[in-house]
Write a structure and sequence with these properties.
single chain; 241 residues; mainly beta; 8-stranded antiparallel beta sheet; 7-stranded antiparallel beta sheet; 2 helices; globular
């Protein structure tokens, strides 16, 4: 049941794997609409990206970028947990922040955070979610749909204090200490079904199309607000149109 490597379907030959300690490899999740994901246990499970092509696909420099994820939160309710992290100093990070009274998403860019509003974008243990975060022009952005947000996909943003990402590697499921040791901290408890990475600026229309694609693929259209353009029907390809 161990997940030793995650498949990259972009054609960029990037591998997400964990070859350090077998006990730190995540496991396959339960199926969601027929698709299996990766289950991180919140203890030591972590996968690292390996840029096999040598072109630093994840090192976006001053360019815009955007990640979108389909996920499920586990039962962990202890402080901030890292879902996706570029490096230990958090050049870019997407985290789930929890305390005894609230559950928020938090995104870092160049170590400076933007955090979701509890009432509009909160998650709870066991919730599924569609979460997007990245950098657009000089702003860090954060947006999500979760079971407890009643379909509220509000976009949160904050001005970036820097313009560089100095790491071409990313960690899934924890805040990275270093590729040489495989150690991580503040590990996330949850299931990751899909991660989509865009290098460049993403329009609102494209963002909504990705949200619609994920919601329909995993049969979680209840996450989308009632007036979302793809609430009822999935986005169509040019061939279908």
């Amino acid at each position: 049941n161990d997940v030793a490597e995650a498949e990259d379907r972009s054609g960029n030959e990037i591998k997400f794997n964990n070859t350090y300690v077998e006990a730190n490899q995540p496991h396959f999740s339960t199926e969601l609409n027929g698709f299996q994901g990766i289950d991180f246990d919140g203890s030591n499970d972590v996968l690292f990206s390996d840029d096999e092509a040598g072109d630093d696909e994840f090192d976006v420099g001053t360019d815009d970028f955007y990640f979108m994820l389909m996920l499920k939160h586990g039962t962990d309710v202890d402080t901030q947990k890292y879902i996706l992290c570029s490096d230990y100093v958090r050049d870019f990070t997407l985290a789930a922040r929890s305390t005894s009274i609230n559950f928020n998403y938090k995104s870092y860019y160049n170590q400076s955070p933007v955090e979701s509003n509890q009432a509009a974008i909160a998650w709870a243990p066991g919730d599924y979610g569609i979460v997007g975060a990245g950098r657009e022009s000089s702003n860090r952005t954060l947006r999500s749909y979760t079971d407890t947000s009643t379909g509220s996909g509000n976009l949160y943003s904050g001005t970036s204090t820097g313009n560089m990402i100095n790491a071409s590697h990313f960690a899934l499921g924890g805040r990275q200490h270093g590729l040489t040791t495989g150690l991580s901290t503040a590990n996330w408890d949850g299931e990751l079904y899909e991660l989509i990475f865009y290098h460049g600026t993403i329009s609102e229309d494209d963002r909504e199309k990705i949200e619609g694609y994920l919601a329909h693929k995993y049969a979680k259209t209840d996450l989308l607000e009632s007036d979302h353009p793809y609430k009822t029907n999935p986005p169509r390809s040019p061939l279908q149109e």
